[in-house]
Amino acid sequence: VLGLVPKEKLPTYNVFYEGRTFGHGQPGMAETHRGVPLGDYLFQFDFGVVAPEVCEDIWSADGPMRRRAYSGGELVVNLSASPFRLGFWDTRRELLATRASDHQVTIAYANAVGSNDGLVFDGGGFINQNGRPVLETPRFQEGYTTAVVDLDRTLRLRTENTTWRVDRESWVTSGGQKVPTVDCTQVKTKRDTLAYPVPAHRSFFLPAPDTRRPARVALCEDILDALALGVGDYFEKTRAFKLFGIALSGGRDSLLTLLIAHRYAKRARPDNPGSLIQAFYMPSPYSSQQTRDAAETIARELGVPFQVVSIEEAFEREKAAAQQMLGETKLTPITEQNIQARIRAQRMWNWSNSCGGLFLQTGNMSEKSVGYTTIGGDLMGALAVIANVPKTVVMYLLDYLQETTGYEGIRKVLAKPAGPELAHDQVGEEELMPFPILDACFYLHAGEKLTPSEMRTALTAMFPEVEAQRLSSYVDRFVKLFHQSIYKWVQAPLSLHIGNLDLDRERALQLPVVTGSAWLRDA
C-alpha cells in the first residue's frame, strides 16, 4: 500500500446518508496510518502522475480534481459505488467527458456491481482522455477491461490549451495549495511493451461502427437487468433461502415479477432455471378461467413448477368468522376483497416458513401510491421486486418481452384488462383512473412537488383529449388517496430501487405518516 486518499464529498441526500456516519478528507490533509501516507496526495509512477478519488468527488464541480490536475495529476482514477438509476448511464458518460475536458486529464472510472438491500449497482466503467471517449465497459457483470492510453497526449493538450494554462496560473497566483506527490517510481511498469492506441477500425477520421442499442431496447434491458441483479443478490447474499415463491394471479404484475426472477435463475442455473422457482395460483369465486389459463401457460413455458390451491372454502369460513365478530354491522365489499388477498398472503408465508422460500411481493408503484393494495395481503412479501416500477412501465416491459420472447403466456395475460379479480368484473383503470394519467399525477405531485392546481395545468397540456373537469376530478382523487395511503407504504417490504422517485419514505419522499391536507387546498 503506497498511500491512502480519503473521500472528500460525502453525499447526504436521496439514498445517501454518508455525512451522518463518516468524516471527510480535506484539501492539504497530510497524515499517516500505520506508516502509510493518508491525505490529499498524488502518486508519481514511471508512466505518469496518478490522482485517486472516490465516487462523489467527481460529481462536484468544486471537487478535488481541479487542484490535483493543477498540481500535476494526469490520470484520475475514480472508484465509485453509484446506484443504478434509469437513464443515469448517459449522465455518467457526459459528466466524465466534461470533467476530463475541463481539467485536461485522463479519467479512469470504475463502478461497483451488485446489489445491497434495495440498492442495485450496475457496474461498468469509462476511460476518457481530455474529453475524448476511449473505452466504455459492459454493465451488470463482474470483470475487467483494459485499454492503452497515451498520457503524453494529455500533456500535449495541456500545453496547447491556453485557457487551461491561464486558469492554472490564476489558481497558483491566488494562493492555490499544491498537492504533494508521493514517489512511487520504485514500482516498475512495462510501458515499453505497449502498442500505440490506434482505433480498432483503423481510421482517425471515420466514425467507428455504431454499437448503441435502440432507446426502447436499452430502457427495457436496463430495467430488467437491474431488477434481476437485485433479486439475485438479495437471494444469494442473505443465505437464508432455497428458492423463490410467487403467487401468480394471471395478471401483469405477478407475471413481470416471475419473468424477472426467471431471468436471474437462467444465469444461476442455466440447465434448469425453473428449479429455483415455485409458482402458485390460488383462485377465489371471482377468479376467471382466462387468468388461470394464462398463469398455467407461462409457468409451463418457463419450466416453473405450478400448483393450483383454491381459497374458496377458506374465503367462506373467514367471511363467516368476520361477520360473527361484527355482529349486526354488515361486512363491507372491500372487506370481502381484502379477505381473499390476506388468505393468499398467509398461505405464501406458511409455504415460505416451511421450505425456506423467498416470497416475492408483486405490486407495482402506481397502485401502491394510491393504496390500491391490501395490508396483510398483496402488499406483503419478503422482497418487493417491482414496487418502484410504474404501471405504465410494467405494461411497456411486458409488451417488449412478448415481442422478444414470443411467450404465449404473456399474450394471454395482456389480452385481459388489468384488474385484481377480487370482485365481479373488476378493472383497475375503472376503479382508479387511466394508468397514464395516474402515473402522470404521481410524477408531478411526488416527483415535481406540484400542487393540485399546478397538476391540473400540466395535465391539461399533456392530455388535451380529456375534458378539464374529468382531469380535475382525477387530480383530486389522486391527491386524496396518495396522502391517505402513506401509512400503508411504511408497512411494505424492502423494495428494489431503479430511480430517484419511489415510495421508500426513509429515502426519497420522506413524508410523515400523519399529515394534514389543508396546505394542499387551492383554487
UniProtKB/TrEMBL annotation:
MF annotations from Gene Ontology: NAD+ synthase activity
CDD domains per UniProt: GAT_Gln-NAD-synth (cd07570), NAD_synthase (cd00553)
Cross-referenced InterPro entries: C-N_Hydrolase, C-N_Hydrolase_sf, Gln-dep_NAD_synthase, NAD/GMP_synthase, NAD_synthase, Rossmann-like_a/b/a_fold
Instruction: Write down the top EC class of this protein.
Output: ligase
Question: In which pathway does this enzyme or protein participate?
Answer: Cofactor biosynthesis; NAD(+) biosynthesis; NAD(+) from deamido-NAD(+) (L-Gln route): step 1/1
- Kindly indicate whether the keyword NAD belongs to this entry: yes
- Tell me its EC number(s), please: 6.3.5.1
Domain named CN hydrolase is located at: 1-151
Q: Does the keyword Nucleotide-binding apply?
A: yes
Q: Which UniProt keywords apply?
A: ATP-binding, Ligase, NAD, Nucleotide-binding
Q: Which NCBIfam families match?
A: nadE (TIGR00552)
Q: Which family does it belong to?
A: Belongs to the NAD synthetase family.
User: What is the name of this protein?
Assistant: NAD(+) synthase (glutamine-hydrolyzing)
